[in-house]
DNA sequence: AATGAATGAGGCTTCATTCAT
DNA sequence: GATGAATGAAGCCTCATTCAT
């Protein structure tokens, strides 16, 4: 996807804008770049298209960015920032672990929904670009480490299966949520968000053996306690 | 486009080879195409590169394929075929559900490992190509439906939580396995296969509440029963 | 073709230039295209050759034209425009029909001389391009209808054979002039323009039975009145 | 149209076939070549297409022809031969000059109808190929000289305007007939053959002042004597 | 800063011709 | 002779980037 990524940068890096107008133009290009990536994918992500969507001439693109890849980095940074803020579960929520898990999964799913498009596109290019790979890794790490900590705390509180390695478990369950979002989106399976969030949360809870979760000791209630969503 | 000042585009579709030599050349191009896709991704997937890897001139490429995309279809078909055969769990294996699950996950993980690269690349292009989308969907469906059936049987046998919707569950857990393979591979998390397969299988089993699985009733054995692999 | 693994072909249509420089470059490409068509015919008409003659890089070609064929349209339009203006007989000329006829034929011959080359080339391609066919038709129609009117007026004035269908006659005699220009040019018959114009005019006049034309009642003067040019 | 025509022939010319089968294959290729030229024009005239229409493999093409252009020469020769035989007015026809003229024009028109397609295509290539130019010239010459002789005889017999230069006149009137055929065909003017032949013949006759032709002394009969065909 | 014209490396594809079988 | 696979020069076009205004 990304072709000439390793080439030596001999060029003077475009400086950050000093004026307000310049800053706005630059932001506009990043927003436009992200929109295009999300809507048209990598092949549509051309400086000309980005400039057009941003409403500036294509020459202007190079006033703010050294190259396409430079913009891609900025877009990815912006995506990462947004994801971080939008997916946090506010601290004033209930203390019930399962409820928090459900809420967390819902936010995660929504946040990834947009981010994943960009991340997946970037991953293709990351093969040849160490910088991109680092950034993707950092974004994932953000979630994995947060989730790892959550699992560890539950284990320490005796609320989750202590036999599980927390990080690998976090990776696995985070992968599940991310990929489900992608699969359902891409392949147009007709599940609604609530059904998906419900199932993911129950599977997640059961997987780590969360105490007090809906499916705990399902034998007692052969009909299950959750809503069995249909496809 | 305005005009094709030429004959009506009949574009004699590249015929399947009639001779053995031709068949071998064609196969070679598909193999080469797959290798390049896996190693260099879409941008490296040029007719010229493919032909070079296959050891023929680029003109030969067009003896057998209409276009780059035509070859992509063939590569994807080949990947699908290989995945199908290589990921089946031989019927003469044990009847213990958990053992079967472990074996199935191991095979799935291995098979997806190569296929996923191609599938992910193709997915990017699938946005604009109904044919590709169909093929990706079919490949996934293969696994989802097989897995859905497995879950349903376990539920009917009273061995798994009957409150789960089998297909959504299959999608979620399949997603987990697929994405874990990708994340670990791409982001170079240093887990070995056994640890990963073990954890995935335990998470999977616990998620569906599989009777007789290692983590069933983990409270009884606070140390857990599985090997807690570390990163 | 199977797939365009890329963004939906929006193919931002080459815009008309907004600056003077751009306009000049565009004109230059049209002029260059015409020159090449006339001198080297269709096979020489490559974007690269045109750009070279115009003194720009071939990339610039695509700044102004979507394709080779797009330029062809522009060239043809330019040829048509030039023909129209250059072949009009100024209104202040004599009223003597034969003198007007001679003048008209001379201009027609000259104008067609260059245009015909382009028109004939275009006709080959017109088989597959409705737009081109239309343009060729319009160019011809310009002359046919003008000529048809001329004949009709002469008939109504009692100066020409009223038994002739004006339009078919106009087509036939126009065809004669056009094709004579071509044959003489292509096959290098060594007639000079005056001799040709003289003969064509006399044949034309006699064909429609024009009153007062040189060959009217030729028996009275067995030596004829015109110059008998030799090959 | 014809690209690399001047390149030195270093190749051993394919010999004429010795066997009957070979001769038939060769003829078949010529016929196929002509069909393709007429139906699809120059761009469709590829060795592969020709071979396919002829029902042989494309390798076989080069058994009989050195190159595409070699075949073109053969096709043109075949067209020339056919035209010659098909357009002769049988000697046992009436001696009335006008009737012979009408018959001659009708045959000419029909014969050119097919030939002209090929001739016009070839003319495009003739720019760069001396051999082709010669052949086209010879085909035309056939008609021009025959027609020149006809006119000269009429003049000597006192039946046509002796003030006209016979060859230039022959070229002009022959051009008229040829081009009318083309214009009507290409631009789809809806005249039927009889109307066209009638008009062409009357124009031709009047142009040379043929004694005893329908429009001679049209003033005596203001309604004209011919059928005024309409479009 | 902004503009938009200009550049040219590089990609995809065609097709006339050659060659091994 | 016949076959059809193989070849590669040459064409068309895209698009990231530079540059003159």
TrEMBL record, chains A, B, C, D:
Quote the biased-composition stretches of kind Basic residues, using this chain's numbering. Answer: 1-12
- Which Gene3D superfamilies did the record assign? Homeodomain-like, Tetracycline Repressor, domain 2
Q: What Pfam family is a match, any one?
A: TetR_N
In this chain, the stretch annotated as Disordered covers 1-21
Indicate the segments forming the HTH tetR-type domain, all copies.
Answer: 23-83
Q: Which residues bind DNA?
A: 46-65
The organism's superkingdom is given as Bacteria
Q: Which GO terms describe its molecular function?
A: DNA-binding transcription factor activity; transcription cis-regulatory region binding
PROSITE patterns assigned: HTH_TETR_2
The UniProt keyword set, sorted, is:
DNA-binding, Transcription, Transcription regulation
Q: Which PANTHER family match?
A: HTH-TYPE TRANSCRIPTIONAL REGULATOR BETI (PTHR30055:SF234), HTH-TYPE TRANSCRIPTIONAL REGULATOR RUTR (PTHR30055)
The identity of this protein, by name, is: HTH tetR-type domain-containing protein
Organism of origin: Streptomyces phaeofaciens
């Amino acid at each position: 996807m990304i072709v000439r990524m390793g080439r030596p940068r001999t060029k003077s890096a475009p400086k950050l804008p000093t004026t307000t107008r310049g800053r706005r133009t630059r932001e506009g290009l990043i927003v436009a770049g992200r929109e295009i990536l999300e809507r048209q994918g990598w092949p549509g992500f051309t400086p000309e298209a980005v400039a057009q969507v941003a409403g500036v001439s294509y020459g202007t693109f190079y006033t703010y960015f050294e190259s396409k890849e430079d913009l891609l980095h900025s877009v990815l940074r912006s995506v990462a920032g947004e994801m971080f803020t939008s997916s946090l579960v506010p601290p004033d929520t209930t203390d019930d672990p399962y409820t928090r898990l459900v809420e967390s999964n819902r936010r995660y799913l929504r946040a990834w929904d947009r981010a994943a498009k960009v991340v997946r596109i970037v991953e293709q290019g990351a093969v040849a670009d160490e910088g991109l790979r680092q950034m993707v890794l950092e974004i994932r790490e953000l979630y994995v480490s947060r989730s790892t900590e959550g699992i560890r705390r539950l284990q320490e509180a005796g609320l989750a299966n202590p036999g599980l390695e927390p990080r690998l478990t976090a990776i696995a369950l985070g992968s599940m949520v991310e990929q489900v979002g992608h699969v359902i989106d891409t392949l147009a399976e007709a599940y609604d968000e609530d059904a998906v969030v419900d199932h993911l949360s129950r599977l997640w809870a059961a997987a780590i053996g969360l105490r007090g979760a809906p499916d705990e000791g399902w034998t007692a209630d052969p009909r299950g306690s959750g809503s069995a969503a249909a496809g």
